[in-house]
C-alpha cells in the first residue's frame, strides 16, 4: 500500500465514426472519464495512463474525402492527413491529463485494432487495460465485431470494459 | 475528481477447494490483493469494498464430512457448519480491510454463484465487480465452467477478472 511505482493503465482510444465529428469516439471518451472518476479519483500521483490509438490504415480517410489517387503523392498526402487526425485525437486526452496533473503517455500504431492492442499489452505490460464498448446486442455484434470482447479474451493483462451509457447512444448504435 | 462518494467495488470471494485448507481460494485472495495494490493504493478513503460470498448449498459440506443424515437436526447442523465456514471466510477479508482502514461490507448468499453475483450486482449497484479466475484453458473450462466468464458477460456493471498467477497454481489447476 506504500506509494511505489504508479499503477499503469492502458486506455485504448479511437476516433468517432460520426460524420463531421473529428473527435474521440463516445465510448472511448466514456472509458477515459470513468477511469478518472472511479479509479484515479483524487490520487493522481498513483496512476499513469498509457493511451493507445490504433489507426486502421485501409479504412481511414475514405469516408468523407471522395479521393482520387492519381499519383504517389496523393497517397502520401492521405497518410499525412490520417496521422494529423490521430495526433489530434491523442492531444485531446493528453491535454486533459495534463490539466488534472496525471502522468500519461500516448502512442499511435497502425493495423487491426484488436490485434495491435493485445500486442502492445504484451510489449508495454500495463497493470490493466481499459476499453470502451458500444454495448451492442448479440445480433449487431455479429456484423461489426467488437474490439473489447476480443481484448477481454486475449489480452495478457486484466481488462475492464466500459459500456457506453444508453443516454449517449447515437441514433444508429453502430456509430460511436 | 473531488472526494465525493467512495468508489464501490464488489469483490466476489469463495472458499478454497483444497482439502484441509479452510480459507479463501487462491484466486479470490489474489483478486482482493490485486485490487488493494493496483486500484486502492494509498487512497483508502476513496473506496469501499463490498464482499460477496455465495455458498453452493448442495455441494458444500459434503467433501470431508462423510455425513449420515438421520434426522432433521443433522441437516440443520450441516447448514450451521456451512454458515460458520462462510463467516470465517468473510472475517478474513473484513479483518484485512479493517487493519488497512478501508471501508467494507460483507454478505453471504446461497445459490448458484454466477447467477447470484449478477443478481447482487443489479441490487447493490457497485461501480464495478472484481472476480478472481483460475485462468483455466479452454479444454478445462468446458468441464468446470467459469463464474468469471459468465459475470463478465452478464453482470450489469464493468467487470475486471484477475487471473491466478502461474506461480500460485496448485498441482491440479482445477483446484483453487
CA-based shape of chain A: globular
Please count the helical segments of chain A.
Answer: 5
What is the overall pLDDT average of chain A? Answer: 86
Largest sheet of chain A: 5 strands, parallel
Instruction: Give the end-to-end Cα distance of chain A, rounded to a whole number of Å.
Output: 38 Å
Strand order, main sheet of chain A: write it out.
Answer: 3-2-1-4-5
- Strand residues, percent of chain A: 15-25%
What proportion of the residues of chain A is helical, as a percent range?
A: 40-55%
Quaternary arrangement of the chains shown? homodimer
Q: Structural class given helices, strands, pairing of chain A? A: alpha/beta
Count every beta strand of chain A, where a strand is a DSSP E run of 2 or more residues: 5
Q: What string gives the helices and strands of chain A in order?
A: EHEHEHEHHE
Please summarize what this structure is.
Two copies of one chain form a homodimer. With 176 residues, chain A is an alpha/beta fold. Chain A is built from five helices and five strands.
How would you describe this structure in keywords?
176 residues; alpha/beta; five-stranded parallel β-sheet; globular
Structural overview:
Chain A is an alpha/beta fold and 176 residues long. Chain A has 5 helices and 5 strands. The first copy, chain A, has a 5-stranded parallel beta sheet, with helices on both faces. The longest helix of chain A has 29 residues, at 72-100. The first copy, chain A, is globular and about 55 Å long. Chain A starts with 6 loop residues before the first strand and ends in a 13-residue tail after the last strand. The A-B interface holds A 1-3, 7, 34, 36-44, 46, 100, 127-128, 152, 158-163 and B 1-3, 7, 34, 36-44, 46, 100, 127-128, 152, 158-163. Chains A, B: This is Adenine nucleotide alpha hydrolase-like superfamily protein. Chains A, B: Residues 24-163 form the UspA domain. Chains A, B: Pfam families: Usp.
